[in-house]
Write the structure tokens for this entry.
Amino acid sequence: MPLSPPRRLGAALASTLVLGLVASCSAAAPAGPSVAPSPTATGYRGAPIGKAAEPGEAPEPTTTPVGRVVPLPEGTRPWGVAAAKSVGKVYLAARKQNLFAVYDMATGLVASVPVPGSARMIDLVAPEGPLLLPAENGAMLYTLALPSLEVVRADPTRRQPHQGVQVGGTTFVTEEYGHAVRAIRDGKTVADLTEPVQPGGIAAAGTRVAAVDVKTNLLFVYDATTLKLVAALPAGKGPSHVVSIGDGRVAVCDVRGNQIITYDLSGTPRELGRAAVPGRAFWVVADPASNTIYAALSNTNKIAKLSVSASGKPRLVTTVPTVQNPISFDRDPVTGNLYVGGFADSELQIIPASAFE
């Protein structure tokens, strides 16, 4: 299928946008006889396109990381982390390699296991699996069985798929350089949602799906059944990922804004609140049962714990020290332990739930 590139305008348009479908754009003629400048690339409804926010580098830790630190195979440099308590394994995606580092919760041993592609973010569909692996280097979304990691499904994507999520019988995958969110049912592409310029993180909340556009700093909300755009909401200064926090709500980590932003996706989607955190919040995980959010502060070697009020507003509670450059992590829903991937030194940090008390 052809790519759907962002629109181009000659003049800057406003970046605040609300509900609606894609509106047509026009180019304004330059004043005077001079040669027209190169057009400026813009996104949905003229939203300015900026540089995608990255996790940033982190200094060597000056505080001892809490919990236990497990060395990973040299050069793993993990991004995505998935803790599958049902099979007693933690899976860490090796950066730019067709490999997982697999930690055995029972024995404490680590093994390198080949997988069919290189992923940044990996996600469990359910506690017992399967696991979604968006292969950046192969333009495929693989569905892997646990604990075997055998491929049970392979769906083609456009360039550089980033993250996947399932809602009922539909799988959604963000295609960063394919400029779309792909919807797949029964192994067939049923929709290409082309409003985002560079979609990154994606999450489901109820019957709706939220995808972050890391280029226009917007949160796109779709109906998972009709596959129609419901809303496009401002999402801070440089968002990266989004997670469901229960009751039809989600939380977005604003990397450049050093904050967590919460939204209600039900009815007319709206922002609920914001909380500042001491670092670049690149990845976010939630425990809806306790109204708690955890965020990886990648450049300050911390995990932040936030509480969510009944009205949906987040509040910073505490932080704990981590290994160097924590980009991603996952939470064991049974024990509450966090499994943190240390990118800089290829480490796995196991943080007990008690560390946040």
Observations:
- Residues 1-39 have pLDDT under 50 and may be disordered.
